[in-house]
Specification:
- There is one protein chain.
- By secondary structure, this protein is of the alpha+beta class.
- Helix content is 20%, strand content 40%.
- The chain has helices at residues 5-8, 17-22, 53-69; strands at residues 25-27, 33-39, 76-87, 95-105, 109-117, 123-135.
- A hairpin with a 5-residue loop joins strand 5 and strand 6.
- The N and C termini lie close together (9 Å).
């Protein structure tokens, strides 16, 4: 399996064009956890004037990837297998923050949960997902 060159260097793993376009920050809290943050702009709204579900999905997917990467050994990487989302409340402005946590780390598959909060700390979305462990 060929991996994109961006995956080959752990230091560059957090820098990709979509992250830059969204203005999303990626942070590691501790092993098995990942956090993404972004400031809502007009560019991120859907035609109804609320944050597009794809933006929330991207935040969760990226936070889960970060949480997984903090749990893996050197020479291992990850790829999303599936993610389920629940959108609970619309968001029109302010900052969003997605928190992801590894709930089970297997040799080949990682299971995760995520929660997305608005600037007031209100839960706006949840996610559950699995990621594949890839050894290079």
């Amino acid at each position: 399996m060929l991996l994109p060159s961006v995956c080959m260097d752990r230091h560059d793993y957090e820098d990709f064009p979509l992250r830059r376009f969204l203005g999303m920050d990626i942070q590691r809290v501790e092993r098995g956890q990942g956090v993404t943050r972004l400031e809502v702009s007009e560019d991120l709204l859907n035609p109804n004037g609320v944050v597009h579900g794809g933006v929330l999905f991207t935040m969760v997917d990226t936070a889960m990837g970060k949480a997984t990467m903090t749990s893996l050994e050197e020479g291992q990487f990850c790829a999303s297998i599936e993610i389920q989302m629940r959108f609970l409340r619309p968001v029109r402005s302010g900052q969003l923050e997605a928190h992801a946590t590894v709930i089970r780390l297997g040799r080949k598959v990682v299971h995760l949960e995520s929660r997305v909060y608005d600037a007031d700390g209100t839960l706006v979305a949840t996610g559950a997902g699995t990621f594949a462990v890839i050894s290079v």
